[in-house]
Design a protein that fits this description.
Low-confidence stretches: 379-389
CATH superfamily of the largest domain: Type I PLP-dependent aspartate aminotransferase-like (Major domain)
Strand content: 15-25%
Radius of gyration: 22 Å
Bound molecules: pyridoxal-5'-phosphate
CATH architecture of the largest domain: 3-Layer(aba) Sandwich
Number of strands: 19
Largest sheet: 7 strands, mixed
CATH topology of the largest domain: Aspartate Aminotransferase, domain 2
CATH class of the largest domain: Alpha Beta
Helix content: 25-40%
Structural class: alpha/beta
Mean pLDDT: 93
Strand order of the largest sheet: 2-10-9-8-7-3-4
Shape: globular
Length: 475
């Protein structure tokens, strides 16, 4: 494995996470030297009183939180702990339908009653945008005693939600607001980026430092606001208890040091980061002004500019999957995500504006080649797919709760035979890791068609093995 990984990172140009970009910024040169355990002179992540405590306080100051906790099992562990800390079994929660699977797992483990919030949706390019606060107000007004609201902001495409309004709506109804800001750990380091949720009234904010900072995979942060603690909405002891439940009992000092080094690097290189952001902004706006016939870049005041989202003109009949394959094969470029009508590349402090230019040029060349080599069959195939009804905009019918479904017997069926059957497992295209069907929900024809499309195009999907899904056995 080691040999293969070294070969990958030496040959391929990364527009994906982790944010150190294949070690372009390598802040811990001798990881074994700091790979220690809980002994005198070190500390204990699960009961921090020494060097970890000091670092957590320093990072809390930088991020303007009341308390900050280091996470060494990713945002996944932070989200699981956050939801568990503010709920008890049978409580009602509202979560964004585009939440990461860890949030769904927290619902299952906590035996919670869940209602979904449908974020705004880009109909043309088919992806979720931000959560509209009015949606939340309507959803809360239909229900009583909502304990917590969990939303994802920013989305994978870098679109942020109206956090201030959303937090007002949640708090005025007595609910805790948890924001999954996994893709926004870099926001605090530049004013041209969106404002972090922790400064806009969210109670708990979880961020993956490994995604957008020069930190190692699995590193993340959980922030708690002062208001959350003083109002009694969040009990720090309970939160710490669940952080211990969901994190390793042997926390890695290599990972914790990587957080320290990555965050401090951002502070020391603020000017370099700002230059990258402003130059990228300019490049994107002049590209878009030229009105290239193959596509354009997502932009706007709610968009994080370091998320390079290329939206493919549908008239070309080219899919994001095809484009990503050509970029990898012919330009040795690996993007973060490819979907039907768009691809996403990530730039971080480890990149320069030349790297943005390289991606833009490679996309132009690849699109031009793809369009000129396109066969008629490919064109028909793509055009058909455009008319596939978009399943992500509709909530499937619910037969059982996620928790109830865990205890029901199941069987495997091929996707075509799953129509009208109840899902036993999550089905999750990865990335972005957002479930398209949740245990206890009923498969529709449209959903099965969409999943077939994903499979044909080689998109990785958890929950489908050799074309089969798990459904509840009929009695
Ligand atoms: C929106 C979102 N939340 C949470 C996570 C989980 O983050 P981590 O990999 O740090 O556990 C991801 C990972 O892809 C994500 O995209």
């Amino acid at each position: 494995m080691y040999k293969e990984l070294k070969s990958y990172t030496s040959k391929i140009k990364s527009y994906h996470m982790p944010g150190h970009k294949n070690g372009k910024i390598s802040l811990i040169n001798e990881p074994f030297l700091v790979d220690v355990t809980e002994v005198e002179g070190t500390d204990d992540l699960h009961h921090a009183t020494g060097i970890i405590d000091t670092l957590q306080k320093q990072i809390s100051n930088i991020y303007h939180s009341y308390r900050t906790f280091l996470l060494i099992n990713g945002s996944t562990s932070g989200l699981l702990a956050a939801v568990a800390a503010v709920t008890k079994p049978e409580d009602k929660v509202i979560i964004g339908r585009n939440c990461h699977k860890s949030v769904y797992n927290s619902v299952m483990l906590g035996k919670l009653n869940v209602a979904y919030l449908l974020p705004d949706y880009d109909l043309e390019y088919q992806f979720y945008k931000g959560v509209n606060s009015k949606e939340l107000v309507t959803s809360i007004s239909k229900r009583e005693n909502i304990k917590a609201v969990v939303i994802t902001s920013p989305t994978y495409e870098g679109i942020v939600s109206e956090i201030e309004l959303i937090s007002e709506a949640a708090h005025s109804n007595g609910a805790v607001l948890i924001v999954d800001e996994a893709h926004g750990a870099h926001y605090i380091f530049n004013e041209y980026l969106p404002n972090s949720a922790i400064r806009q009234g969210a109670d708990i904010v979880v961020q993956s430092t490994h995604k957008t900072l020069p930190c190692m995979t699995q590193t993340a942060l959980l922030h708690v606001s002062e208001e959350a603690v003083l109002s009694g909405r969040v009990n720090i002891n309970k939160l710490q208890k669940y952080l211990s439940v969901y994190q390793s009992s042997s926390p890695s000092y290599v990972l914790m040091s990587s957080i320290e080094k990555g965050v401090k690097y951002m502070i020391e290189h603020e000017i370099k980061f700002e230059k990258l952001i402003l130059e990228t902004k300019n490049l994107i706006s002049s590209y878009n002004q030229r009105q290239n016939k193959y596509g354009h870049w997502l932009s706007g005041n709610k968009v994080d500019i370091t998320r390079l989202t290329y939206l493919i003109n549908k008239k070309t009949g080219i899919t994001g999957w095809q484009l990503a394959k050509v970029l990898r094969k012919q330009h040795k470029i690996q993007v973060e995500l490819a979907c039907e009508h768009h691809i996403i590349g990530i730039v971080t402090i480890a990149d320069s504006v030349q790297d943005v230019n390289i991606l833009m040029d490679a996309i132009d060349i690849s699109m031009s080649n793809l369009v000129s080599n396109k066969t008629n069959t490919e064109h028909e195939f793509s055009t058909n797919k455009i008319h596939v009804k978009d399943v992500l905009r509709e909530l499937p019918k619910v037969q059982y709760s996620i928790y109830e479904t865990t205890y029901l017997d199941s069987e495997k069926v091929v996707l075509k035979k799953a129509i009208s059957r109840v899902a036993k497992e999550f089905v999750i295209p990865y990335p972005p890791g957002i479930p398209v069907i949740v245990p206890g929900e009923v498969f529709t024809l449209e959903l099965c068609n969409k999943l077939e499309d994903f499979m044909i195009n080689g998109h990785e999907i958890y929950g489908i093995i050799e074309g089969e899904v798990q459904v509840i056995r009929k009695v």
